């Protein structure tokens, strides 16, 4: 991949390894992730994509016999150290999971809850935040008249867009997504893809996907993982048409996986 200018780097990952006990699930990954682009992470089941993604905002509970070594440079700081407040880090590097996980609360509260806990009290500001973030995910028109209804009454696709809106309300720089559409129908998937395409103007998105067609139509860059190693990371068009490594070609063409 061509060098990325420093001001365009969202994350500079150096020799990142993750261990579950003695099992090394991620093996010394180096990766420079460009800002305001969508990067897709692909590879066969169990190759360490989710483990890698979770390490980026320190979701691994080290007390659980896990170890994460290496550096994750975000805004000139290595965030893979205990000195960094994980709570603040997760605001700046938010996460959306495979299965929509809205809080058991109203649509409005799903967005405002964390903001209120952060001390935002002004009702008008809170209302503005709810509206803006729901508009960003294209959900506002669908829910504006029922903001006090339970979020659990929404469809799966709407719930996932609400979860994305909830992350956006915290004003992150980077959004991590672990197979964000794999539990959704094709229409909801299409809406989320449209949303992500729109969001990348302002946010860096790093997304694990099993869906190669999705990676190829949506992402700017693609990283191929195998057995915990990053085999290659490059422009998506290059990975899908002319990868540097034969193994990537075999995976893309469905020879294994
Ligand atoms: N909580 C855990 N404890 C122990 N080993 C784990 C744990 N989670 C994952 N692993 C192991 O780490 C390796 C990588 O798993 P991971 O879920 O990161 O892969 P993946 O590429 O995201 O897989 P998939 O595409 O199936 O979701 C696998 O060998 C898996 O068995």
Automatic annotation (TrEMBL):
What are its GO biological-process terms? phosphate ion transmembrane transport
Q: Which keywords belong to this entry?
A: ATP-binding, Cell membrane, Membrane, Nucleotide-binding, Phosphate transport, Translocase, Transport
Question: Lineage of this protein's species?
Answer: Bacteria, Bacillati, Bacillota, Bacilli, Lactobacillales
- Source organism: Vagococcus coleopterorum
Quote a single Gene Ontology cellular component term: membrane
- Quote the InterPro entries the UniProt record gives: AAA+_ATPase, ABC_transporter-like_ATP-bd, ABC_transporter-like_CS, P-loop_NTPase, PstB-like
Domain of life assignment? Bacteria
Q: Which GO molecular function, any one, fits this protein according to its record?
A: phosphate transmembrane transporter activity
Protein name, entry field: Phosphate ABC transporter ATP-binding protein
Q: Which Pfam families match?
A: ABC_tran
| Leader sequence residues | none
Q: Does the keyword ATP-binding apply?
A: yes
Query: What PROSITE patterns has UniProt attached to this entry?
Result: ABC_TRANSPORTER_1, ABC_TRANSPORTER_2
